[in-house]
């Protein structure tokens, strides 16, 4: 369970999160929508401790992410994150990209890590690209590799930060299919996305962020069908 | 002009000088690189403000001509501090610091060339700072730094000719001694140049080979 309580976060004078309260249950798929600068991506990087917060608490399975006593490297093993830019390690093959963290962080043997890497890469449809370097892959394939790399750590939670935003339109589908598959397997996910159709399909709940505030959160039918917040109504009108 | 009074013994004398050049260069490049990596990582890690004293110290070594550094260091340690020290030790010490100053800049630039988003990705996978440095930054930064580092090694090799001022008889000094005796400056300088070429050429070739092998795209 991810519990977010009254989280505030500023970059200099600019407050990007103005008191966020949110709880994500295990097995839940939450999508977060909103305009750029609404704070939705920042929230994800706060959840895995990449960004410090100014006030409030974030707890993952009861462990406070930003507490000094928390071993953040250990906590991050539970929380996979995939970014808009896929960030493939260019000096490693696709398989080695996926094997690196399990070997070094989880201290798995080469055989163990390799078996896991092959399984995860086949899972995302890259079983035939194991030994090529990522520069030879398309953006969509690199993004699926990044998903497999995060999954190889057997995380309990997956955070997706606009993972299709940097892709060519014809490559968006394959990555969304991968996310759909994960959702159907019961992975707990928070997806920041601009893909409204996708959000509508896979989410248990959808949250709308506006200027650092979570303006509305509801099951997708309700949020898209009868939006109450005026900013959300405007946002939906503009994106449709 | 190939009618020379030079004997095989003289060639051996030059070879000995070349050996000294190689030895001083090797010590300076190895120790200077180790120090340079440490200085470069520290400079990158602590930020420009905290690194200011270190940056100043390195700038001193980069901006004062090597010849002056050698003479002053030799005089300072020997005369002011009254410590008996060989010219060879001073040569190694000064060349090492000189190399480290340039190497630190190369290292810092190379680390900065690794996209921060890659490092964010590796840290997100639970890797520690050290693991990120070892498995992501080091291999990627090495590729960026390597051509400049080869250039540095070659230039240190040639600059090492200046250590004659602290009484180290390296290749160029040996040549000058022979010139004084044989009075065949052009011929001897050609031989000397050939020796320098023989030393640098393999380094440049190995560098080129490694660069090609590391580029996997």
TrEMBL record, chain A:
<comment type="similarity">
    <text>Belongs to the ABC transporter superfamily.</text>
</comment>
<keyword id="KW-0813">Transport</keyword>
<dbReference type="GO" id="GO:0005886">
    <property type="term" value="C:plasma membrane"/>
</dbReference>
<keyword id="KW-0547">Nucleotide-binding</keyword>
<dbReference type="GO" id="GO:0015424">
    <property type="term" value="F:ABC-type amino acid transporter activity"/>
</dbReference>
<dbReference type="InterPro" id="IPR003593">
    <property type="entry name" value="AAA+_ATPase"/>
</dbReference>
<dbReference type="InterPro" id="IPR003439">
    <property type="entry name" value="ABC_transporter-like_ATP-bd"/>
</dbReference>
<dbReference type="InterPro" id="IPR050086">
    <property type="entry name" value="MetN_ABC_transporter-like"/>
</dbReference>
<keyword id="KW-0472">Membrane</keyword>
<dbReference type="GO" id="GO:0016887">
    <property type="term" value="F:ATP hydrolysis activity"/>
</dbReference>
<dbReference type="InterPro" id="IPR030679">
    <property type="entry name" value="ABC_ATPase_HisP-typ"/>
</dbReference>
<protein>
    <submittedName>
        <fullName>Polar amino acid transport system ATP-binding protein</fullName>
    </submittedName>
</protein>
<keyword id="KW-0029">Amino-acid transport</keyword>
<dbReference type="Pfam" id="PF00005">
    <property type="entry name" value="ABC_tran"/>
</dbReference>
<dbReference type="GO" id="GO:0005524">
    <property type="term" value="F:ATP binding"/>
</dbReference>
<feature type="domain" description="ABC transporter">
    <location>
        <begin position="2"/>
        <end position="236"/>
    </location>
</feature>
<keyword id="KW-0067">ATP-binding</keyword>
<dbReference type="InterPro" id="IPR017871">
    <property type="entry name" value="ABC_transporter-like_CS"/>
</dbReference>
<keyword id="KW-1003">Cell membrane</keyword>
<dbReference type="InterPro" id="IPR027417">
    <property type="entry name" value="P-loop_NTPase"/>
</dbReference>
From TrEMBL, chain B:
<keyword id="KW-0029">Amino-acid transport</keyword>
<protein>
    <submittedName>
        <fullName>Polar amino acid transport system permease protein</fullName>
    </submittedName>
</protein>
<keyword id="KW-0472">Membrane</keyword>
<dbReference type="InterPro" id="IPR035906">
    <property type="entry name" value="MetI-like_sf"/>
</dbReference>
<keyword id="KW-0813">Transport</keyword>
<dbReference type="GO" id="GO:0015184">
    <property type="term" value="F:L-cystine transmembrane transporter activity"/>
</dbReference>
<dbReference type="InterPro" id="IPR000515">
    <property type="entry name" value="MetI-like"/>
</dbReference>
<keyword id="KW-1003">Cell membrane</keyword>
<feature type="domain" description="ABC transmembrane type-1">
    <location>
        <begin position="18"/>
        <end position="207"/>
    </location>
</feature>
<feature type="transmembrane region" description="Helical">
    <location>
        <begin position="144"/>
        <end position="166"/>
    </location>
</feature>
<comment type="similarity">
    <text>Belongs to the binding-protein-dependent transport system permease family. HisMQ subfamily.</text>
</comment>
<keyword id="KW-0812">Transmembrane</keyword>
<dbReference type="Pfam" id="PF00528">
    <property type="entry name" value="BPD_transp_1"/>
</dbReference>
<feature type="transmembrane region" description="Helical">
    <location>
        <begin position="20"/>
        <end position="42"/>
    </location>
</feature>
<keyword id="KW-1133">Transmembrane helix</keyword>
<dbReference type="InterPro" id="IPR043429">
    <property type="entry name" value="ArtM/GltK/GlnP/TcyL/YhdX-like"/>
</dbReference>
<dbReference type="GO" id="GO:0043190">
    <property type="term" value="C:ATP-binding cassette (ABC) transporter complex"/>
</dbReference>
<feature type="transmembrane region" description="Helical">
    <location>
        <begin position="83"/>
        <end position="104"/>
    </location>
</feature>
<feature type="transmembrane region" description="Helical">
    <location>
        <begin position="186"/>
        <end position="204"/>
    </location>
</feature>
<feature type="transmembrane region" description="Helical">
    <location>
        <begin position="54"/>
        <end position="77"/>
    </location>
</feature>
<dbReference type="InterPro" id="IPR010065">
    <property type="entry name" value="AA_ABC_transptr_permease_3TM"/>
</dbReference>
């Amino acid at each position: 369970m991810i519990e977010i309580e009254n989280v505030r976060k500023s970059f200099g004078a600019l407050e990007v999160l103005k008191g966020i309260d949110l709880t994500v249950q295990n097995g839940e798929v939450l999508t977060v929508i909103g305009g750029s600068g609404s704070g939705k991506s920042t929230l994800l990087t706060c959840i895995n401790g990449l960004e410090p917060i100014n006030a409030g608490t974030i707890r993952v399975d009861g462990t406070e992410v930003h507490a000094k006593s928390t071993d953040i490297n250990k906590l991050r093993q539970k929380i996979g994150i995939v970014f808009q830019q896929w960030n493939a390690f260019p000096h490693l093959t696709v398989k080695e990209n996926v094997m690196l963290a399990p070997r070094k962080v989880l201290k798995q043997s080469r055989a163990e890590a390799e078996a896991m890497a092959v399984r995860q890469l086949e899972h995302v449809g890259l079983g035939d690209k194991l030994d090529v370097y990522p520069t030879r892959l398309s953006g969509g394939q690199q993004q699926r590799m990044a998903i497999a790399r995060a999954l190889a750590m057997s995380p309990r939670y997956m955070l997706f930060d606009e993972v299709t935003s940097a892709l060519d339109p014809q490559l968006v589908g394959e990555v969304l299919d991968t996310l759909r598959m994960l959702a159907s397997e019961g992975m707990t996910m928070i997806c920041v996305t601009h893909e409204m159709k996708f959000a509508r399909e896979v989410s248990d709940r959808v949250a709308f962020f506006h200027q650092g505030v979570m303006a509305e959160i509801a099951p997708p039918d309700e949020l898209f069908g009868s939006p109450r917040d005026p900013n959300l109504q405007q946002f939906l009108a503009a994106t449709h | 002009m190939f009618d020379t009074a030079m004997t095989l013994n003289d060639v051996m004398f030059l070879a000995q000088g070349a050996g000294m050049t190689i030895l001083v260069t090797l010590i300076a490049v190895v120790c200077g690189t180790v120090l340079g990596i440490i200085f470069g990582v520290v400079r990158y890690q602590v930020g420009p403000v905290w690194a200011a004293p270190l940056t100043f110290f390195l700038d001193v070594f980069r901006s004062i001509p090597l010849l002056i550094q050698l003479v002053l260091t030799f005089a300072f340690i020997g005369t002011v501090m009254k410590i008996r020290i060989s010219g060879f030790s001073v040569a190694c010490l000064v060349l090492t610091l000189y190399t480290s100053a340039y190497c630190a800049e190369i290292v810092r630039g190379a680390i900065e060339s690794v996209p921060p988003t890659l490092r964010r990705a590796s840290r997100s996978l639970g890797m520690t700072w050290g693991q990120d440095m070892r498995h992501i930054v080091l291999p990627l930064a090495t590729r960026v730094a390597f051509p400049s580092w080869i250039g540095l090694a070659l230039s240190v090799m040639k600059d090492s000719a200046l250590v004659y001022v602290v009484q180290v008889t390296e290749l160029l000094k040996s040549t000058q001694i022979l010139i004084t005796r044989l009075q065949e400056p052009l011929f001897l300088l050609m031989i000397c140049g050939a020796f320098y070429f023989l030393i640098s050429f393999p380094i440049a070739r190995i560098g080129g080979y490694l660069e090609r092998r590391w580029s996997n795209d």
